[in-house]
Structure formats: C-alpha cells, structure tokens
Amino acid sequence: MKRALNFNAGPAALPEAVLAKAEKEMMNYQGSGMGVMELSHRSKEFEEINERTENLLRGLLTIPDEYEVLFLQGGASLQFSMVPMNLLEKGSTASYVLTGTWSEKALKEAQKMGNAAIAASSKTANYRFIPSTSEIDIPAESSYLHITTNNTIYGTQWHSFPEGLPIPLVADMSSDILSRPLNLSSYGLIYAGAQKNLGPSGVTVVIIHKDLLKRSKPGLPSMLNYEVHAASRSLYNTPPTLSIYFLMLVLEWAEALGGVKQLELLNKQKAALLYDAIDRSDGFYTGHAEEKSRSLMNITFTLDQDDLTSAFLHEAEESGFIGLAGHRSVGGCRASIYNAVPLENVEKLADFMNHFRSRN
Ligand code: PMP
C-alpha cells in the first residue's frame, strides 16, 4: 500500500509501525476478545495501558517524582484557560511571552481570568524570532511566566530557556514535546496536545510540579481542576482511552528508536535538508524565521511571487506531498516534519524543492 508523503501540521503523520500494531490489535487486544476502545476504563487492561503510558513518558522525558503526569481532554486550547484558572493567584499577574498566534490565544484566555501581561514579544517583527531571555521583563508579583516552545504557524522554536526564575515557568510544548531532551527542573508545568509528536488528537498531556497543585481552588469546576485529575490519576471521568493507547504505542516506538536524544539527531538531520534547500536557493525560497530561531519541527518559507507559490503548492500536491500550504493566517509554505515523518520523505521534499527551483 502506498502511504502519503504527509507534512501536515497536526493531526500529523504517525509512525507506520504504530499504525500496523494498532491494526493488528484492533479486534482483540492482548487476548481480551475486545478492541481497546471496547475496554472499560476501569478494567485491568486499561489501567495497565494508563500506567504504562505514564511510565514510558516519565522514562523518555526523565520526569522526576515531584511531577504529576496527567492525561486530559480539551486540547492545548483548554490549557490556555486551565493554566490561569488554577495557577493565577489573587492580586497577581499572569505573564506571557508572545511568539505567535498560539501564545496570543493563551494570553487572551488568561486576560479573562484576571491580570495578564506581556513580558516580551516579537509581534512587530511578524514573529520571525524568539526574544532573547535577557529581553524578558517579568512584572513584579507574577504567578508564572508562560512561553510557547515551538511556534507551529511561524516556524520558530526556543533554543535557550529562562532559567532560575523566582516563579514557575509554564510552557505550551504542543508542537515540539518529545523532539529533544527536556530539562524539566526549569518548569512548573508543561502541556501538549498529542496530535503532532505524541499520537492522534484527543488526549492532552500535562506535566505539573506537585507544589503547584496546591494552587487549584476547590471551588473550580472539577473537570478544570488539576488537583482533581491528579488525585484520580487521570481517571476522574472516562478518559480518551483510544488516544491514550495510541500514545502508549508512539512512546514504545520512540523508546525502541533510542529515545529523545536519537529523535533530536534525526530531527536536526531532517530540518537541515530543508533549510539547506532554502539557503542554497539564491533567494528563490525565503525562510520566514530568523536563523537563530528556526524550528526543527515546522519549516516555513515563501517564494517571491504569489503565483509561483501557488504553482509550487499545486505541483507538490500532484507529486504526492500533503499539507505544504502555510497556515491560513500567514500564507506561504510550511513543511511540518515531526518525529514520525521519515527522513526519506524529507529527502524527497528537498529534491522536489531543488528541482522546482531549477525549472522556474
Ligand atoms: N498550541 C500550539 C503550539 C499549537 O500548535 C496548537 C494547535 N496547532 C495549539 C496550541 C492548539 O491545540 P488544540 O487544537 O489541541 O487545542
């Protein structure tokens, strides 16, 4: 069977081995006579899936015991609200570094909950770069500082991080979690929707320092309260069982591949192929991100005329490349090359870019 050359931004390509294993277990999970989505979430089988998934994630990202791992629903977008609902203390400010559309949305939700401020922003530069850590100006009495480690739409990524802050660092890692090693000790909370590097959509991973759970007020709706989810080990209500199962398979795949260090090496190799095609094109392709802030996950670029961009996207589609149009809010082109996108597909895209340039 021919698989697509999938460069979607999310939901995105999954490892073929994961899909094959899920297919094999679809009708009969481990001799239970039921598929995973037919199992009770209170069954022994699902409890094991839940526990194994958490343990795999703890191993891969070296998550210490002081942190809880939660599997929630509502996507990263619900975290835009849950973070300030739970962590913004009375009379205090929620501080945000704006590096793109998703951090703007996170800020907007925080503003609905209380005081929120911009600690740094690259908006006036059309989000071409990540502000340096020395530029971040955190207002006094802040409850936390929020960053978006990879900006899916603009194709920028944080490569050095604020360290030793007096307040918790909170990060939206939706589009780069598991793509590189993580030094969790700098963070109070991280969250990520699964549908890029972790699995299909439907589950959102939240990793939270146990100290921060004390900030969740009992008056919060239970489903929006981190403490409630932590106390019930993410089984407060019916969890997205199938998505969690897929997450487990993706984590098993990542572990078998050699873990996040190996994934990072591969991701660097893949990104270099496309950035080389851009940099060696004599201006035929222009990268959106400044070099120092380039993302290894989402490679964004433009061609210098609109009709050439349309021709590029059209020919790419005819050649079997999926998902190369830039986000509707910025246009241009974007190749999303998350963990599961095979190196050979990226090589094919780089070749296509070089050939298209030589023909135009
Ligand atoms: N944050 C980032 C960095 C994203 O890329 C996205 C989705 N593309 C979101 C948040 C929103 O995620 P969701 O659709 O899961 O709410």
Structure overview:
By secondary structure, the protein is α/β, with parallel strands linked by helices. Helix 2 crosses helix 6 and helix 7 (259-279) runs parallel beside helix 9 (343-359). Helix content is 35%, strand content 18%. The protein folds into two domains: 16-256, Aspartate Aminotransferase, domain 2 (3-Layer(aba) Sandwich); 259-359, Alpha-Beta Complex (Aspartate Aminotransferase, domain 1). The longest helix has 21 residues, at 259-279. Bound molecules: 4'-deoxy-4'-aminopyridoxal-5'-phosphate (PMP).
Examine the secondary-structure arrangement and name the CATH architecture of the largest domain.
Answer: 3-Layer(aba) Sandwich
User: What is the number of helices?
Assistant: 9
Determine the mean pLDDT.
Answer: 97
What multimeric state do the chains show? single chain
Radius of gyration: 21 Å
Strand order of the largest sheet: 2-10-9-8-5-3-4
Spans of at least 5 consecutive residues with low confidence: none
| CA distance, first residue to last residue | 33 Å
Bound small molecules, by name, code or SMILES, are: 4'-deoxy-4'-aminopyridoxal-5'-phosphate
Instruction: Assign the structural class, choosing from mainly alpha, mainly beta, alpha/beta, alpha+beta, or little secondary structure.
Output: alpha/beta
Order of helices and strands: EHHEHEHEEEEEEEHHHEEHEEH
Profile the largest sheet. 7 strands, mixed
Helix content: 25-40%
CATH class division of the largest domain = Alpha Beta
Broad shape: globular
CATH topology of the largest domain: Aspartate Aminotransferase, domain 2
